[in-house]
Amino acid sequence: MKDRVVVVAGALYDKGRLLAARRSAPAELAGRWELPGGKLEPGESPEQALVRELREELGVETEPVARIPGEWPLKPGYVLQVWTARLVSGEPEPLEDHDALRWLAPHETDAVDWLDQDRPAVAEAARLLRER
Ligand code: 523
Prior knowledge:
Blueprint: E1 5-14, E2 17-23, E3 33-34, E4 37-39, H1 46-58, E5 61-73, E6 78-89, E7 98-104, H2 119-131
Parallel strand pairs: 1-6
Antiparallel strand pairs: 1-2, 1-4, 2-3, 2-7, 5-6
Bound molecules: 2'-deoxy-5-methylcytidine 5'-(tetrahydrogen triphosphate).
C-alpha cells in the first residue's frame, strides 16, 4: 500500500544486551523508551532506512540481521516494523531524538517504560537474545 508510512526500528544488540533509547520528543512520547529508528525516506529499503537512522541518532554503524515478524499500528497511516540489528562499530550516544540510552540484559528488558507499540517486538527480541 502506498498511502502508508513505514517506521522502522532496530532491536540493536551487542554483547548479549539490547539497546533501549528514551525519547526526548514529542511531549506525548517524551520519557518513554523505544527501539530507535524512524521513517523511511523515498526510495529507501527498510534496511537502508534503519542503518541511516541508527547512524544519525546514535552515531553507530549497524547491520540489520532479521525482521521480527509482525507489524504494529502507530498513529493512523503509520506502521512500525522491527529488525534485529547488530552493532558493527561505535558506541551509541543520544545524538538526536533521545536523552538517555541503556543496554539491557535479557532479564532486564522489562526495566524501562517502553512505548506500548514497541512492547511485542521488545519481548520477541529479548526471547531471541536469551536463545543466542
Ligand atoms: N515510533 C514508535 N516506536 C518506535 C519508533 C522509532 C517510532 O512508536 N520504536 C513512532 C513515533 C512517531 C513515529 O513512529 O509517532 C515516527 O517516529 P520518529 O519521530 O522517530 O521518526 P523520524 O525520526 O523519521 O521522524 P521525523 O523526526 O519527523 O523525521
